[in-house]
User: Which sequence fits this backbone?
């Protein structure tokens, strides 16, 4: 290299360095980092849906870090912990999670997390945000565990009242429940609806409550009882295996009673397990969250953004929607907490206070959730509850109804 | 009355399915005195093999069923060769502990190899039930019941009337003595595991036909446990009676008591029967009473 070329290169580097320096802000904003503990089930009963749900919530954290988080100078780190959907496993992991991460919030999955941590989190002053509907056994004031959706019983009651209105007439809707004693959460789903039906006999006539195993051997006999009782709807909020066995039982009886499923065992999951969505033609899924149908909705558009720009690989379905909505209301609450307290020194307690201080609007969750107004009275919003209803038409999931009102349900 | 009889028939057929799965327990126990805690896991391994050959490889049922049985037999053989053959002559307890380890290992392997998704299981038996007047009998359970009875008769004859079967019984009595008498202990135990895996695969086909396949299906192993203990762990013929009794009691409890109490007593009642029989007659209904001469 000649002297002249060396001088030229030095000049070029100097000019480049000056240009970079000129574009930099005078004071580089310091980045605050906070941790989130993600409780996951990659090898237990929900192992089939976990990768998709995890993909949804993690993509939201990436999106928030690169957009709003960057503006605020905050980064949210997260780490998944394998719980196998087992309360004992959650309880044994928790001390380690706390000392390793010192999280400002826990992102939970289901009933075992609630059972294991409901006594610990108030002491540790760390809130937990769930993806699912709430549980009657956890319906207590001054909660530290929060659900964006009301209880499963609220959701089924909302759906059944909508169905009765669609049917018309003054008679109560004849309903059967298929539940399982394999999990306290499954029993809870049935108990809440049973109490509502008992208190509102003019609305719901509960003709059968059947408990079965999580992988039933045969439900032909049980479904015959349901058919003979004249049920107009069958509520199954447990798992896909029970939906499949019930469907086969109904088919064996030559009956086609509409099944109502929830989000975690909804139309795509149960349809897949049955060998095709067309087998669930005319069945329903209902929950207080956006339905992942083909229609172009704000929720769908946000999902497309996550896919295009933030590495989300999960398909557009209810489980992904559940993960995204969980991620969105978690980051929105943290956002509110930062707005109220500043980016530095944020604690779990501040995050919980922010949840009560300000509603989480439906715009902030891109239409995935209705506007949520939490109060210290319950772990889920008690006012303005809505459910959306999806169904299968011509082999495709379509939105049947949105913003269906949920009536008042007494605590059980 | 018709529905009552129908519930009895369906219950008996479900009980026969439990008997078939329990046959896997008994075959392995009769050849090695080892209680295989991973019996339910053998059912899902068999289920996944059937699923793979039909739904993934796209083979016709006529081809995939025999192929699945052969592959299941090979899996049983491999399990015995890898995990159990080195324990021959050691205490039975250590072999039983290996089956507990197998339970965890096989569950993990299923997740690792096939993933966690719930899969549609092929429709092997007709979905349309058999109608007898007002009675309705699920076809998979009916055909399964016939298969179970045929298998029980065949295996009883094999164990009680053939030299190979009697040799396997001798192996179970004492590995060292059987070996000194020129009986191939390794061969007998390996054959029992091959048979156990094949029976489990047939059980998976009856249990899961037209339903969904996940590792939750392994719970059938626990459902079959009361049948095996009720019959007595050495009696293949006794499994039929025990299965029918437990199935009928469970069905009647599920259909007539559960609606009254609002719970799932039907899932628990087989275990209550099992505990009661263990208290009254620890060897089960048809189990062998060991006479020890001092």
Assistant:
């Amino acid at each position: 290299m000649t002297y002249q070329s060396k001088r030229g290169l030095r000049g070029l580097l100097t000019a480049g360095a000056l240009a970079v320096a000129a574009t930099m802000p005078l004071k580089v904003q310091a980045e605050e980092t906070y941790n989130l503990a993600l409780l996951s089930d990659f090898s237990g009963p929900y192992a089939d849906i976990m990768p998709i749900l995890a993909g949804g919530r993690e993509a939201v954290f990436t999106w928030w870090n690169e957009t709003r988080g960057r503006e605020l100078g905050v980064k949210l780190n997260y780490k998944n912990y394998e719980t196998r959907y087992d309360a004992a496993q959650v309880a044994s992991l928790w001390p380690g999670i706390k000392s390793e991460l010192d999280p400002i919030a826990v992102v939970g999955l289901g009933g075992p997390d609630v059972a294991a941590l409901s006594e610990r989190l108030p002491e540790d002053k760390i809130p937990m945000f769930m993806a699912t509907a709430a549980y009657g056994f956890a319906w207590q004031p001054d909660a530290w565990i929060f659900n964006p959706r009301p209880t499963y019983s609220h959701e089924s009651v909302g759906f059944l009242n909508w169905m009765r209105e669609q049917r018309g007439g003054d008679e109560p809707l004849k309903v059967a429940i298929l539940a399982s004693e394999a999990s306290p959460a499954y029993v809870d789903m049935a108990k809440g609806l049973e109490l509502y039906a008992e208190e509102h006999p003019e609305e719901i006539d509960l003709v059968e409550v059947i408990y079965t195993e999580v992988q039933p051997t045969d439900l032909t006999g049980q479904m015959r009882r349901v058919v003979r009782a004249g049920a107009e709807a069958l509520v199954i909020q447990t798992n896909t295996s029970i939906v499949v066995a019930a469907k086969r039982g109904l088919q064996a009886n030559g009956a086609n009673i509409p099944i109502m499923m929830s989000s975690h065992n909804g139309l795509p999951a149960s349809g897949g397990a049955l060998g095709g969505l067309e087998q669930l033609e005319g069945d329903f899924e209902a929950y207080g969250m956006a339905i992942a149908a083909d229609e172009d909705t704000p929720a769908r558009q946000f999902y497309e953004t996550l896919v295009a720009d933030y590495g989300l690989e999960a398909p557009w379905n209810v489980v992904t929607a559940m993960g995204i909505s969980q991620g969105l209301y978690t980051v929105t609450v943290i956002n509110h907490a930062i707005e109220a307290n500043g980016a530095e020194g944020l604690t779990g307690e501040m995050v919980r206070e922010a949840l009560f201080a300000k509603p989480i609007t439906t715009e902030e969750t891109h239409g995935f959730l209705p506007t949520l107004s939490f109060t210290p009275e319950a772990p889920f919003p008690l006012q303005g509850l809505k459910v959306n209803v999806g169904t299968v038409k011509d082999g495709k999931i379509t939105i049947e109804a949105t913003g269906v009102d949920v009536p008042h349900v007494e605590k059980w | 009355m018709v529905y009552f009889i129908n519930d009895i028939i369906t219950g008996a057929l479900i009980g026969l399915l439990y008997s078939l799965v329990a046959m896997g327990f008994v075959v392995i126990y009769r050849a090695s005195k080892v209680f295989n805690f991973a019996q339910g896991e053998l059912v899902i391994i068999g289920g996944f093999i059937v699923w793979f050959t039909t739904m993934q490889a796209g083979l016709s049922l006529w081809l995939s069923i025999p192929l699945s049985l052969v592959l299941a037999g090979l899996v049983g053989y491999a399990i015995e060769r890898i995990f159990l053959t080195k324990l021959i002559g050691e205490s039975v307890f250590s072999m039983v502990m290996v089956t507990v380890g197998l339970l965890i290992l096989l569950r993990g392997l299923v997740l690792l190899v096939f993933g966690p998704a719930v899969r549609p299981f092929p429709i092997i038996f007709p979905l349309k039930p058999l109608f007898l007047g007002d009675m309705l009998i699920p076809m998979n359970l009916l055909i399964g019941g016939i298969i179970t009875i045929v298998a029980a008769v065949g295996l009883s004859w094999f164990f009680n009337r053939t030299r190979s079967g009697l040799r396997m019984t001798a192996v179970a009595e004492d590995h060292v003595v059987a070996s000194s008498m020129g009986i191939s202990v390794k061969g007998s135990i390996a054959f029992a595991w091959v048979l156990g895996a094949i029976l489990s695969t047939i059980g998976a086909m009856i249990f899961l036909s037209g339903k969904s396949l996940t590792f939750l299906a392994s719970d059938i192993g626990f459902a079959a446990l009361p049948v095996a203990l009720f019959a007595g762990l050495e009696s293949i013929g006794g499994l039929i009676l025990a299965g029918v009794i437990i199935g009928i009691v469970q069905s009647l409890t599920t259909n007539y008591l559960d609606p009254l109490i609002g719970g799932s007593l039907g899932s628990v009642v087989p275990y209550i029967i099992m505990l009661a029989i263990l208290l009254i007659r620890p060897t089960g209904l048809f189990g062998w009473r060991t006479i020890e001469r001092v």
